[in-house]
Design brief:
single chain; 2 domains; 24 strands; 11% helix; elongated
Length: 290
Amino acid sequence: MKQSKYVQKSILFFYVLLVITAGLMGCERVEQEKQSFNIDSFLNLQESIIENDFAIEKKHDIKELNVDGKYDLNTDGETETIEIRLLGRQDSSLRINNCEISIDCENPFDFYLVDLISDDKFIELAIYDDGPSGDPKTTFYRYDGIKIYELGSFHTDINISHSISTYYGNVLTDGKGNFIPPDSIVKFVSPNIMKGYYSIENNKFIYNSIDYTKYLLDEYIVASDFEAFFIKQSISNKLNKQDIKFTWDIEKAVEFKKGEKIKIIIMDDFWYGIERQDGTTGILYFWMGD
């Protein structure tokens, strides 16, 4: 009897171990899939903006934006009545049919109708806010026929062509609900370094980070000519922002040429510790806002 119980426990332990192992392998496979995006297959989100005949009134001098129009936002065959009333740092609102939500904005600048996922039933609204002092943000809203959802924001204007800038850079999309905003990808080098991406889950943008540290110390090619701030200094992988004396003198911007080889030793959200082709090390960064 004791031996029979021992055998039963051994079998139970084996199955538990098998389930745990399968779960871990599944998680690892999902993580590998997350990191196996082919960035070359992504398109500029600008291409997903839909032309419309909405009445759009822009008063940038007083930071006011008014939008009125009709569109079938959830492809149910009935058009929705859309009213947007925005005034910087004042009570602002988005109204769709009889549903209304409040919106916080600093400097409402533009409005877009956009199809975030090509084969779903939704067309989204996007409001571009240029921020208090050139701090761009595009926020997306979805209407399901009952409720308005604020999906989230990307810190840029989505209606621009390709740009390597971490501010005012273009957003990439695969058309299937995955998005790479400019602060999640290093575009000034080839191949690009992807730091993470957003997906839509339960009517919210969810950020999925990627371990990009394994790509550091590799040699990269400058993807295009550009000018950036560059502070010469010794670089270590333990460097932090407090060790850097940033300067904003545009006359001291340094030119980088397409084809130049560089090594990226460390990088933060908006600055990069690099070694240039001639062996010079320092901090490369673009304009970072206020």
